[in-house]
Amino acid sequence: MAEFFAREARFLDKSQATSAVRASARESNGKVYVVKATIDLAAQTNASGDTHVLGQLPVDRSFLFGQIVTTVSLGTSTVSIGTRATPALFRAAGTFTTTNVPTNFGAAAAVGATPVEGGDDLLLTVATAGLPATGTVVVTLYFVGP
Question: Taking the model in full, what pTM does it have?
Fold first, then answer.
């Protein structure tokens, strides 16, 4: 059977005439950094176009994935997750209707992309229809770096 190597594991391929460069800490054996944000829906108006600051983008880290969990259905409301510069960088606007079940997300272009500069605010943007007036939304973003 043939054996293939992921980009990040090419340095393990002993059949190569020249040794491949070992993957960086952002790609293999890096440290995971977490930004967790809890939004109490009753504390805000949550209208379409509103933003919720989740935290700050870590410096020199690559995005791995995110997770959202809610205690109530967000109904027809759509939310995106990203930065001020790119509001849908990590999650394009979409609905979240399943309650109490963590849902993973991550835009393919953002996952493992070149490390971000950092310092920009991380935002949840209410894109369509207001959010419910009760309940809780928890967003967790995972990054990797040296």
Answer: 0.84
